[in-house]
């Protein structure tokens, strides 16, 4: 179960990238949503939240990072980082939030996805503050950290985390500054054992920004979508110099790894394949839109420009 | 007012009709298969493709032609031919021109197999067993077997009504299972399932094609054998029996071969809809209803049709690709509207 | 000569036909008469091999039907069903050519001889001018004539017909009746006609077999078997069976129900 959960953080995030931003909200819920968001993002006079339920795994990470971990009383079905979340009650996720369970935990703040308009409306009517998280780039992530820090009374911790992250990201950027930009295909999904069902970053979103920071030019950056599914022909034509696959789970045994890497050999003319620059990276931090993006950026940079790492 | 039937011939040139249809539609299919790899979202030069002086691994045009487009066009031709001819056989078996290769549950079974693997079997460690094509093939076989057991009695002819009911029952039940599994799936898995359901001809190598080919050829051979019996069967089962057709065998062979063909096609490229019903209809409008002509014509026209749809799918919104099942649906919808208008 | 010897048939519920023995006279038109559910359709299906008897056997000459393959049997016995509803729009010629199936091997196409036989069958039923028409666009009488032509194309000695005029109006009924009479004489085809139209049977059939509740009540020359008493026994109807001089055969006029 744990292994399955580990695999799921990333895909949930990824899936959100893929899903786009179309909230399925009734007209009534939409009105409530507006109210809720206003309350959620500008809490100037309210007291810090003491009991927080979070349906969004990467925001849960943020809560723990700013020192509000002890204030978290409920997490989503897909939470698994940090380790403390495993002991916390589970209240569902994007498709199946268990509002009864959430209410039974008596929260004073519930963190939901921006597309969960109806749920927002329900909590707003119950008088509970709602913070709606919307996916975006690195700036959105930092803003979200600031927001949840303020909401939980850890403003200074939040600012510190943000400062550290910024420093870290800047360090990565400086480190690779002198290196040539490499045209990179950032693969976030692929059917096991074949080259079918390939999903790549399409030029928008935090993964794209991390890649950019790490010295890579997104091979599909012109598509301007969070993810796209290229055909074999398109991949041949785009001829990336580096192919990086991001996997949220654990690294498989060496033989399997070799086999998965060898799948790309079919595209013989692609420079990444010719020059042995096909990299498979494993780890939940790679796809978590939260406090670990610094770690992710460093990992990407290390793979893209190994010579630049001291 | 219905016009009188297409001009029929006097004695002797059934053979001529057959040959001219096979040659004509064959030429169409051949043209589609040779021209389609030349066209696409990227311009390639035929001269460069076959330029031997450039090493294959460096020749981008050749890579596009042979690695990316060729397998895709071949898959399109095979899947198109298979689904179209399976549609013809299914329509004859069920005595209904609105039947499709998916009516008796094969594609729902495939979908269940695929969605189970996508949701629960997606760890790299599971290896080949986690393969979606294999799982969807297994699902198709299970579904067909269940329908067969439900609908048949040993030694007795199959009632088409019972067969249809069994297929509807299985579709409903397996669809419910699919919904249940999807609910347990996370977002990426749900999206991958949806994507699989839209069909994908971009197989990337010749291996999956070679794997599916024996099944396809076996099914097509059985189809060829059945054609005249299908004519008689579609006039009435009892009447066909009095004319010397072994109804039990004919029905069982038709069911088995149509299911095999559909299972192979779906495990290769996902359940691509409308080919199995639009093509037979169109072909019957052009060549009449004798299955000995309709079957080969549908196979060849189906190949050309799907290759053309795939060409549209990969060029119309380049660099974004429309799933081929969406294109066939967009052709199918208006087609049936036109049929409806024409009849009323 | 076609005969059934003590045949019985039924599904797990009960028997639809019990211990029936009939001999079909060669070259004649024989009628199978009886109310709905009397077993005449079952007997007909047993005679053409579509159904297999639970006990007893059906023979053609010295051979049992069970010993013959479907195709072989189809070269001896052809059937005209009550209704024919093809799922696709076959032409008249295609429908008639289907009768050639038992004479063709698996991948063989119809040859000039087959087309000639089909043509003759069409001419014999007066439907030659309809050969390129779609079957579904024909009138009721035309359709039935085409189906008969299709059975003729099978080139058999024996023709079984199940309620051949049941769905036709009066004009077409007479048309088909006279066609069958003519075919019987010109082509010397043995015919068995299952019908509940007593007047049709009286006009066409030299012999009749009457059935009720799955049993044969009587069999023999029409003049002898088709009487007032027979009609009462079959249908619980009081009727007047008389020779009609203008029609040239027996006619049955129902008077009232007796129950």
Describe the structure.
The complex is a heterotrimer of chains A (310), B (344) and C (259). With 310 residues, chain A is α/β, with parallel strands linked by helices. Chain A has two domains: 2-169, Rossmann fold; 178-308, Nitrogenase molybdenum iron protein domain (Rossmann fold). Chain A has helices spanning 2-19, 27-41, 57-65, 99-104, 117-125, 138-151, 155-175, 206-213, 232-238, 254-262, 271-274, 293-304; strands at residues 52-54, 72-74, 109-113, 129-133, 182-189, 199-202, 216-218, 225-228, 242-247, 278-282. Chain B has one domain (14-343): ABC transporter involved in vitamin B12 uptake, BtuC. Chain B is 72% helix and 0% strand. By secondary structure, chain C is α/β, with parallel strands linked by helices. In chain C, 32% of the residues lie in helices and 31% in strands. Chain C has a six-stranded mixed β-sheet, sandwiched between helices. In chain C, strands 2-1-4-5 form a four-stranded antiparallel β-sheet. A two-stranded antiparallel sheet of chain C has the order 11-12. In chain C, strand 7, helix 6 and strand 8 form a beta-alpha-beta unit. The longest helix of chain C is centred in the C-terminal third of the chain and has 18 residues, at 170-187.
């Amino acid at each position: 179960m744990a292994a399955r959960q580990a695999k799921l953080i990333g895909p949930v995030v990824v899936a959100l990238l893929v899903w786009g931003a179309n909230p399925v909200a009734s007209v009534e819920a939409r009105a409530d949503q507006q109210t809720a968001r206003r309350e959620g993002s500008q809490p100037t006079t309210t007291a810090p939240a003491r009991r927080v339920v979070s349906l969004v795994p990467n925001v849960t990470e943020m809560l723990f990072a700013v020192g509000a971990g002890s204030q978290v009383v409920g997490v989503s079905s897909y939470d698994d980082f940090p380790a403390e979340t495993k002991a916390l009650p589970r209240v569902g996720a994007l498709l199946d939030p268990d509002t009864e369970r959430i209410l039974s935990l008596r929260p004073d703040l519930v963190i939901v996805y921006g597309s969960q308009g109806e749920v927002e409306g329900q909590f707003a009517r119950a008088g509970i503050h709602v913070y709606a998280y919307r996916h975006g780039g690195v700036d959105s992530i930092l803003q979200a950290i600031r927001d949840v820090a303020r909401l939980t009374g850890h403003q200074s911790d939040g600012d510190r985390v943000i400062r550290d992250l910024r420093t870290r990201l800047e360090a990565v950027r400086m480190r690779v500054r002198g290196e040539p930009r490499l045209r990179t295909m950032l693969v976030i999904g692929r059917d096991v054992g074949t080259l079918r069902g390939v999903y790549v970053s399409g030029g928008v979103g935090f993964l794209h920004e991390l890649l950019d920071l790490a010295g890579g030019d997104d091979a599909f950056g012109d598509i301007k979508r969070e993810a796209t599914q290229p055909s074999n022909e398109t991949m041949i034509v785009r001829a990336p110099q580096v192919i990086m696959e991001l996997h949220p789970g654990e690294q498989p045994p060496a033989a399997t790894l070799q086999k998965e890497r060898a799948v790309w050999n079919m595209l013989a003319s692609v420079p990444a394949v010719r020059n042995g620059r096909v990299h498979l990276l494993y780890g939940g931090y790679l796809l978590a839109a939260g406090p670990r993006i610094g770690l992710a950026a460093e990992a990407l940079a290390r793979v893209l420009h190994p010579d630049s790492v001291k | 007012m219905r016009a009188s039937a297409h001009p029929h011939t006097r004695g002797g040139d059934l053979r001529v009709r057959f040959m001219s249809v096979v040659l004509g539609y064959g030429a169409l299919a051949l043209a589609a298969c040779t021209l389609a790899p030349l066209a696409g979202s990227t311009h390639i030069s035929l001269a460069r493709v076959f330029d031997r002086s450039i090493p294959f691994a460096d020749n981008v045009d050749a890579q596009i032609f042979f690695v990316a487009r060729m397998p895709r066009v071949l898959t399109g031709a095979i899947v198109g031919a298979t689904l179209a001819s399976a549609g013809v056989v299914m329509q004859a078996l069920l005595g209904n021109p609105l039947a499709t290769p998916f009516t008796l549950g094969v594609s729902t079974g495939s979908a269940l197999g695929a969605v189970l693997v996508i949701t629960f079997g997606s760890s790299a460690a599971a290896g080949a067993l986690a393969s979606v094509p294999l799982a969807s093939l297994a699902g198709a076989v299970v579904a067909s077997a269940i329908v067969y057991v439900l609908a048949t009695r040993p030694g007795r002819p199959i009632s088409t009504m019972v067969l249809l009911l069994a297929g509807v029952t299985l579709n409903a039940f397996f669809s419910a299972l699919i919904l249940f599994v999807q609910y347990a799936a996370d977002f990426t898995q749900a999206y991958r399932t949806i994507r699989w359901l839209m069909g994908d001809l971009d197989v990337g190598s010749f291996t999956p094609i070679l794997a599916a080919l024996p099944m396809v050829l076996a099914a097509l051979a059985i189809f060829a054998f059945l054609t005249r019996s299908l004519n008689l069967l579609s006039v009435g089962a009892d009447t066909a029996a009095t004319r010397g057709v072994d109804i039990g065998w004919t029905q069982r062979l038709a069911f088995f071969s149509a299911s095999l063909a559909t299972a192979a096609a779906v495990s290769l490229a996902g359940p691509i809809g409308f080919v199995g019903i639009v093509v037979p209809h169109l072909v019957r409008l052009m060549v009449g209803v004798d299955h000995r002509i309709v079957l080969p014509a549908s196979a060849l026209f189906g190949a050309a049709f799907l290759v053309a749809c795939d060409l549209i799918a990969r060029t119309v919104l380049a660099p974004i690709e429309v799933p081929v099942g969406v294109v066939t649906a967009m052709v199918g919808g208006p087609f049936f509207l036109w049929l409806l208008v024409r009849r009323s | 000569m076609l005969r059934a010897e003590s045949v019985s048939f039924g599904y797990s519920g009960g028997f639809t036909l019990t211990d029936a023995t009939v001999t079909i006279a060669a070259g004649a038109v024989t009628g199978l008469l009886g109310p709905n559910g009397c077993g005449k359709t079952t007997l007909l299906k047993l005679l053409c091999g579509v159904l297999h008897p639970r006990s007893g056997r059906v023979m053609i000459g010295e051979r049992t039907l069970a010993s013959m393959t479907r195709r072989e049997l189809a070269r001896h016995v052809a059937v005209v069903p009550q209704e024919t509803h093809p799922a696709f729009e076959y032409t008249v010629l295609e429908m008639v050519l289907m009768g050639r199936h038992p004479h063709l091997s698996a991948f063989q196409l119809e040859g000039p001889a087959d087309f000639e036989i089909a043509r003759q069958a069409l001419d014999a039923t007066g439907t030659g001018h309809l050969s390129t028409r779609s079957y579904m666009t024909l009138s009721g009488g035309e359709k039935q004539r085409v189906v008969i032509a299709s059975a003729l194309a099978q080139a058999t000695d024996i023709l079984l017909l199940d309620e051949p005029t049941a769905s036709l109006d009066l004009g077409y009924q007479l048309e088909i009746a006279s066609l069958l009479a003519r075919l019987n004489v010109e082509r010397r085809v043995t015919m068995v006609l299952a019908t509940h139209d007593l007047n049709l049977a009286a006009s066409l059939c030299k012999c009749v077999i009457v059935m009720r509740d799955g049993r044969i009540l009587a069999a023999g020359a029409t003049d002898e078997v088709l009487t007032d008493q027979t009609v009462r026994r079959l249908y619980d109807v009081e009727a007047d069976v008389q020779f009609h001089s203008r029609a040239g055969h027996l006619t049955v006029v129902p008077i009232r129900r007796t129950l």
